Structures are given as C-alpha cells and as structure tokens.
Amino acid sequence: MKFITILLLACNFVACGQFSQNHSHKTLTEMDTKKITNNIAKSALEAWQSGNSKLWISYFAENPKLLDDGNPRNFQDLSTNVIGHERFTSIDKVEDNGLSIYGYFHTEEWGDFKAYFKFHINQDGKIYLLEIGQAHY
After folding, report:
1. Model confidence, pTM
2. Could you confirm whether domain 35-134 is CATH 3.40.50.2300?
3. Of 10, 20, 65, 69, which residue has the fewest beta carbons closer than 10 angstroms?
4. Cα(first)–Cα(last) distance of the chain, in Å?
5. How far is Cα 62 from Cα 40, in angstroms, rounded to an integer?
C-alpha cells in the first residue's frame, strides 16, 4: 500500500513538472476592484476576497437574505465556511450603480466559471439581500 501511494505521488509530480507549450497553471493575482463604484459593495467584496468573514459580515444588516441562483441559502454558512475558499479572479463588468458585479469566480469544488454578486442596500447603508449565482454574459 505504501508503494502505491508513493508511486501515485511521483506520477503527480512528474505530470505537473512537464514543460510544454500547452501545460500551464492559472496564476491568481490581486484583483483590481476600481471598477466597483459603490463603496459599500466594493468594501464588502474586498473583505470577501481577503477571506475576512468578520469584516464581510459587518457590511450586512441583521438576518440578511441570500439567494443562490434564485434559491434561498444560509448566509451564515456562506460567510463562515465558504469565504476564504472561493473568490473572484476577475471583474468583467459592473452594473446598477456599482451594486452588480460580474466576473470569473474560482471555487475549490467546481473550478472556474462566470458568476455574479448583486448587493441590495437598505437606507441604513447595510446589505439586506445578496444575490449570487452563475452568470451568462
């Protein structure tokens, strides 16, 4: 069993160590949030990107609503278990006065895909609804 484990590890290292024109790994760099014109949405997304769940939650109203592709989801679960493991890798467009953000999104489980975050802010300057999901643009 030990031999099989070592053999599998060696195969993985060899595969990633190959050099060719077609072999590459996506490099994640710090994302530019200058396109986001709404300060609350921008600050919340920057907290998300940095994996700071305490700061992220501070931008939200008490008991905020979360919709994932239109389906209700647990906001606390997203804010404590998912943050730090999922992030935008690019911002492609921003709409609705800086409240709707679209771009490529990376998850450890599902890989990379186009996604959106749509922030809804109340009169107190707190986010009361966050819509997230897979984007088609």
Report:
1. 0.77
2. no
3. 20
4. 48
5. 16
**What are the boundaries of each domain within the chain?**
35-134
Are the beta carbons of 82 and 103 closer than 8 angstroms?
A: no
- At 93-120, the pLDDT tens digits run 999 999 999 999 999 988 999 999 999 9
Q: How many CB atoms lie within 10 A of CB 85?
A: 11
- Written as six digits, the tokens of 90 are 């690019």
Amino acid (1-letter code) at residue 41: A
Q: Residue 41 burial (CB < 10 Å; 0-12/13-18/19+)? A: buried
Q: How many other C-beta atoms can be found within 10 angstroms of the C-beta atom of residue 127?
A: 21
Element at 107 (helix H, strand E)? strand 100-107
